[in-house]
Amino acid sequence: MKNLIARLVLFLILITTVFAFKIDDDPFAAMLKKLTDYAANNPHEKVYLHLDKPYYAVGDDIWFKAYATNTTVKGLSLMSKIMCVELINEKDSLTRQLKLPLMNGVSWGNIKIADSLLEGNYRIRAYTNYMRNFGTEFFYDKTIKVGNSISNRVFTKTSYQFIKEANVNNIAATIHFEDKNGLPYREDDISYEIQIDNKTQTRGKAKTDLNGNAKILFAGNQFNKQGVILATLQLPDKIKVVKSIPILSTSNQVDVQFLPESGVLLEDLPQKIAIKAVNSYGKGEDVTGSILDDSGKVITTFKTEYLGMGSFITNMQPGKIYHALIKFKDGSEKEFKFPQARKKGYAISVENVSNDQVKVKLFATEDAINGEELKIVAQQNGIIYHVSQAKLTKQLFTSSIDRNKLPIGIVQFTLFSGDNQPVAERMIFIKNPNRQVHIELKSDSVSLKKKSRSVFAFNASTDQKPAIGSFSVSVVNVSKVTPDEENESNILSNFLLTSDLKGYVENPNHYFLMDDAKTNRELDNLMLTQGWSRFVWKDVTSNVLPKITYSPEQSLSISGTITKRGKPVAGGKVMLMAKESKGFVLDTITDANGRFRFDNLLFKDSTKFVLQARTKNNDKNVNIILDQFPNQLITTSKNLADVEVNVNDVIMPYIKANDSYFDEMRRLGLLEKSIKLNEVNIAGKKNVVPNSSNYNGPGMADYILPGDKIKNCVNWDCVWRQIPGVISKKEVPSLIRGAFGSVNLSATPMLYVIDGIYPAVLDGLMPADIESIELLKTVALTTIYGLDASGGVLVITTKKGVSDKYQAEGMLSLNPKGISIAKIFYVPKYDNPDQLDINDTRSTVYWNPEIITDDKGNGTFEFYNANEAGDYRMIIEGIDLSGQLARKVYTYSVK
């Protein structure tokens, strides 16, 4: 770190520009020194996941490779040794969480999509513990579609229409209901609930027509509001199916903003103005328009170029008031206010069109010419790449910067006043293919036949030098998985663009598909309109340091406090034992505050432990209080505009093809058969147990017993009789496993989970102490608790403050979150294809996250094609030891 600071300071000393600039002991030089210290002492981590494909279906695995970088050293991060990957549903609830080891900044894993999940828009979020200090806006957060035809009996397709009647804006939703075979549900009763921003707006009933369509009308006219329709269909067999249908917008309005370059609009100077038009669900909408003065005269006309963004140059005359007349795609027009120009001040403009130079202009109004010394600083993530200084003696100053001296990615130009305050800012994006890893793929040994073996070799290089690094590769059949090239997950667009910006970026990969003038102009319009980046100069100038609450995780740990009669036990003896491994025993002594801690632990997820505590005199009558570390809050996704209303309909060909593949794998015994639920109504339940520790998620249960129904029970037989499907003998509950009228009891005892601790005992716990009991009996819900749960699970949530009553003396069972072990991607080997009777129709043909290039930059991998023709699309991504990024897309046809 000290060497980095020294290099940065030396760099500042050596800077030369067209303006005579000299670093000395003035306040500005001190501020630049403060910035280098700030950047060195407050590095940022970034995380990106290479996913094997853009969408999935229940039964799939989400395969991913994780790359974590450090913005200060500009390479793979060595700070954190553990990271978190989460699958989040449409209700912003955690569906699955993995902890993964980071090995020199990389990791990989998989998330199994259980068939208990409904179809919908899910999010994959990834971050390190250290990244939590800087806000969730900079987490990796990707929206993916997940379809379901296994446990799904009802499929919907919804369209929305905005209707205005008597000056009242309403929304008409037409919902089509059909079964898996495409047959409509005709003349069936529908009840619905409209929720906007998690609040119920209205309820009602409807009926499907002969085509399976039901129409619902509700109030709109709320800009930037979203919600859901909870539509309940009554099937002929009396089963009710709840479908959650996203409402992307409750308004058809378009918001239009005019943004002066560098944030400052001055009178009587030609300046670039950016325009951004966004519809009510967050996506860009192209418009045309005119700027008119207060006399109605048209000053200039303009139109947006891509996704509602564009720019034009105009000159605001003194004393004039301007407005914009915007014409939308439906032919309607609307007036918008135009920014008021300042009479005095200065601004900057950056031209980023030349291949060799970046031109910087400094504008000043005539009244502002006073000899004041202004400065321009270009930096990225706190590392300075250009400094210039000039005395303000004329209205326009121009300088040029060699493009090769600027880093690839977002570069922030800031104009400082004479008293060293930031007054204008402009972001640009630097493309430089020479600073990316070039992958030369050798396909001489690639087979174009089904079930045949292909050997791929590639060479990775940066600026014609071998690139030693870590790479991952995915191969999918495009006939099953259609890529969304402009919006697909991408190591370049993530690390270089979206991870440094707040807010939603629509179609980020669009800007990396081509390197022509049109695409680069569209990228520059994005820089003009997107807003501020993660770096804020005022934090540096005001000495506002980030509050570091979360340290980089180096290992797992278990810690807590030992007390006796409410007082800490000093010198107490604490022992940690793993239940599954008799050889795993650790011990320690509590400090003067009764504190203990076991560090440097690495154990797999679902490992069960027992903590034993004694006083130094071996008295076991003590309490163990574990430290509870708050989980990361699930905030609203910034990518809400990526939500798809009709998930199953959009990816239905993929879903059906996937079902056929899984059926074939099960026929051959190559895939474990999971329980196909007839209907999963639990996903539509409200969260009636907010304090529950249910690993499936609060309320995700086969039955929920509220505590107020058992508050008068004096024994456990009374309690268990309140739960359907459970029989109690001598206060011991058992699941009824009967069928067709017979009654058989499960031979395996039910598992007690009390406030997240299991296996637990009921000693000392009273029915009146219980907040709720959740019954888990289906395999889809009990699997998460392991083999001990085969007899069913009772998840008991106690009322606040009573959880330690049932704790055995000096003993505590615990099941902390451990490291998830990645599965190995299964690829059939067809050494003799005629002898292997398999209809191999994989959608992901190959996945490999573990490719390392040698000292010459060479890497190889091989696999067998599936038994299906089509275009196979390969994506290779990675990063070398110097932090340069790699991405290669290659397509070949299998006949």
Features:
52 strands; 895 residues; mainly beta; Immunoglobulin-like
Helices and strands in order:
Blueprint: H1 2-14, H2 27-41, E1 45-51, E2 55-57, E3 61-70, E4 75-76, E5 82-88, E6 94-101, E7 106-112, E8 120-128, E9 140-147, E10 155-165, E11 168-178, E12 189-196, E13 199-207, E14 213-219, E15 227-234, E16 240-247, E17 254-260, E18 270-279, E19 288-292, E20 298-303, E21 309-315, E22 323-327, E23 333-337, E24 346-351, E25 357-364, E26 373-380, E27 383-391, E28 396-402, E29 409-416, E30 422-430, E31 438-442, E32 453-462, E33 465-466, E34 469-477, H3 491-496, H4 510-513, H5 517-529, H6 537-541, E35 556-564, E36 567-568, E37 573-578, E38 581-589, E39 595-601, E40 609-614, E41 623-626, H7 647-650, H8 652-667, E42 703-706, H9 716-720, E43 726-729, E44 732-735, E45 751-754, E46 770-776, H10 779-782, E47 793-798, E48 811-814, E49 844-852, E50 858-864, E51 870-880, E52 885-894
CATH topology (level 3) name of the domain at 671-814: Ferric Hydroxamate Uptake Protein, Chain A, domain 1
| SS element count, helices | 10
Fraction of residues in helix: under 10%
CATH homologous superfamily designation of the domain at 671-814: TonB-dependent receptor, plug domain
N-to-C CA distance: 55 Å
How many strands appear in the DSSP assignment? 52
Class per helix and strand makeup: mainly beta
Task: Name the average pLDDT.
Answer: 86
Strand content of the residues, in percent? 35-45%
Oligomer: single chain
In order across it, which strands form the biggest sheet? 2-9-8-5-6
Corresponding CATH architecture of the domain at 671-814: Beta Complex
**Rounded radius of gyration (Å):** 31 Å
CATH class of the domain at 671-814: Mainly Beta
Instruction: Note the overall shape.
Output: globular
Uncertain runs are 1-24, 672-687, 801-806
Largest sheet: 5 strands, mixed
